[in-house]
Design goal:
Shape: flat
Number of strands: 18
Largest sheet: 5 strands, mixed
Radius of gyration: 21 Å
Order of helices and strands: HEEEEEHEEEHEHEHEEEHEHEEHHHEHEH
Strand content: 25-35%
Number of helices: 12
Length: 341
Amino acid sequence: MLPRRLLRLFATDIAMDLGTANTLLQTRKHGIVVNEPSVVAVDARSGAPLAVGTQARGYLGRAPAAIRVVRPMKNGVIADFDVTRAMISHFVRKAIEGRRLLRPSMVICVPSGVTQVEKRAVIDAAQMAGAEDIALVEEPMAAALGADLPIREPVGNMVLDIGGGTSEVAVISLGGVAAAQSVRVAGDAMTHAVQRYLREVFRLEVGENTAENVKMLLGSAWPQPDAPALEVSGKDLVLGRPRTVTVSEGHIREALAEPLQAIRDAVLRALETTPPELAADVGRNGMLLAGGGALLKGLDQYLARETRLRVFVDADPLTTVLRGTARAMNDRRACHSIFIN
């Protein structure tokens, strides 16, 4: 029998961005192998998973009573352990297709400031899904790695990662986090703000998928010249029948004002707790935006005005954190100091 250390050479190493909205997996050999919504449809009676990821997301708002559609991650951490384990198992099987005899090792990114209980839940879910040798890295650190920032130098670099459940801002220097703030306001909160606005202003009830699409098409943090209007269909709250309204970019920008202010405030609080020398570095170097929320139109302009910082968006903000997690996976020895377990 081959020694265990030699067997590990044939195992699949997996980097995972286990997000509230989406889960991404990358392997050393094949690159990104999974990029799907963190959604699971289960049988309401037995609890058995019926669909996972993209297929399950299509069930949102359309499933009968016999099917329960679950988003098992909430605010970046596990809210439903059994469903999360089933989701991770499904995605890991897709990642290691054809190599199931060997348990994969994993590096998983988690929100900064997670509790020991939350760390243990992530590790346990990954182990029960078939993984071993699991390491955790904080999302802002992974984002800085993925964006090629000089995190090991004695220079302050500020990162704002806006995911589905949390927005996290950190100032990184010498391979560690010097100041950080986390707020449970991010992409999901923006979607719910759009739903709430349509309900209160237009008396129109829309589902989560519709609100998400409206946010992606019309959402902005800064006025967008010549933005088109959009017809949005839903249920009239007064008459209870189908209805369509016309919504403008200005409407949705107004809807997003409150969550954007919460994110801005988190950045300002982080700056307040940053040591003076590092704050001066941030003033020179600016702030990196990563995560799906960074795609909101005009967000860089809005934050630049509110913080007086130079703000730049990563070239591919949806995969910034995953790229950094994969770097940590590919060179565990050099990245040992940034693992938090």
